[in-house]
Write a structure and sequence with these properties.
single chain, 169 residues, alpha/beta, 6-stranded mixed sheet, 5 helices, 6 strands
Length: 169
Amino acid sequence: MTQQRRLIVLRHAKADWPDVPDELRPLAERGRADAAAAGRWLAAHAPVPDRVLCSTAVRTRQTWELAEPALGGTPELVLEPRAYRAGADELLGLVRELPPMVRTVLLVGHRPEVQELVLELAGERESEPLRRVREKFSTAGIAVLEVPGEWSQLVPGSAELTEFAVPRG
């Protein structure tokens, strides 16, 4: 019997708006505090991920770097250039590529794509977390989805959104 898998989706924390290309935008001061708060939330509510798929944008990398110390583990970090400007279907493709030994993955990405991915995977099962994700996927927002079966078989509507949180620092 296949064990349950967990997909944790983290939107990057609040970014600053300096005069740089979008991919180089750093976190704002509030974003730095919120990223650390996201790490504390993850440590309290989710297992340490086996792997982290992180967009190569500066703000997503900084979000992960500030969240990671609270976890008490060192997941394998994959800086994934395809996660920057990827649509929900492309993000789903990245998750489907995960090897079977990965049980919990953390995807650090951008809105609207991460919001669309969570909504697509959760399907029509009504729940309070799903209602909140539909309403707004704020910066530093965290969605936790339970995934039955193999990553390669993940399809829209097949996961269950069990938690949604927006930690603040």
